[in-house]
Amino acid sequence: MLRISAYALAAMVISQPALALEPVRLGLDWSYLPYHAPLVIGQEDRYFEEEGIDLKMEPGRGSGSTAIMLGEGNYDIAHINTTNAAVARSKGVPIRTVAVYQTKTAASFIGIAGKVTLDSVDAIKNYRIGSTPGGSDQLSLRIFRAVNNLSEMDLDVISLDANAKQAALLSGSIDVISGDGFAYAAIIRGTGQEPEIFALADYGVPLLGFGYSVNARFAESHPQLVEGFLRAMKKSWQAAVADVPAACERARATLQLTHSQDACIDYFNGLIELSVSPDSPEWGQQTDEMWSNLLGKLADVGEVGTDYAVSDFYTNDYLPR
């Protein structure tokens, strides 16, 4: 019988070449933010490596732009707003959504408590609203007007650059801003004040939030990498949600976030509240109903046509079992 010593066996193991990793390019929705913390955990704890993935992530300049770049092949997978992914797909961009974890949109009107009262659609008419033309701000406003039978004259909307909205609100030059409620809520609380939030999802706006979309050709040729990415991503989310302060510490250090620790925790918790728990078997799952509601409202405001098949926009085939 052939006998191999423990030393010889160890030498054989050490001499084996490391498993080659496949490069995967991930496009992000925006520059690094607190909710990108799970990606830091996945890389540093080697969840992606365990799936044979060498993940390269790149900050974006908005979900709409990232969706187009994904379709053009600049990225293989993207973390983007699902509504922007839907609009891009309807225009022929070859992408498909493979997971949606934020099933409730964060689109909101945000003011400062004590200065405004945002408790009804009619109340919104009383205030100056700072909003950024183009992109998700404009789209959510159009749908909000449509579902609540408002004309353009019913709301006093003032066009502002995205970087100017925060300063305008805090200085009092406008009363309310439109944007992601959890993000601006964290900023307002950071000044020692409390936010007043009017969530558009509570008033008939069925937009979907963040998820993961893929380049169609990449998914067809590398299905195992898409599946592995989502498995690693779910584990990363589980670890991040289990200890948000620790996740924020790691994200702030690795991504060089400008947010304070408290602001990071507040910001990240705000998104978690709108998202499906990563411990749930429903994490990432999509349905015909959610997509039909989304596409129907987008068609009502002319963002997508009416001749579409819901199945062209999404699939659950790559989700962890």
UniProtKB/TrEMBL annotation:
Q: Does the keyword Flavoprotein apply?
A: no
Q: Name one GO biological process term.
A: thiamine biosynthetic process
Which chain positions lie within coiled-coil regions? Answer: none
Q: Show where the SsuA/THI5-like domain sits.
A: 34-243
Q: Name one Pfam family in it.
A: NMT1
Task: Give UniProt keywords alphabetically.
Answer: Signal
What start and end residues bound the annotated signal peptide?
A: 1-20
Gene3D superfamilies recorded: Periplasmic binding protein-like II (3.40.190.10)
Identify the PANTHER family for this entry.
4-AMINO-5-HYDROXYMETHYL-2-METHYLPYRIMIDINE PHOSPHATE SYNTHASE THI11-RELATED (PTHR31528), THIAMINE BIOSYNTHESIS PROTEIN HI_0357-RELATED (PTHR31528:SF3)
Indicate what this protein is called per its UniProt record: ABC transporter substrate-binding protein
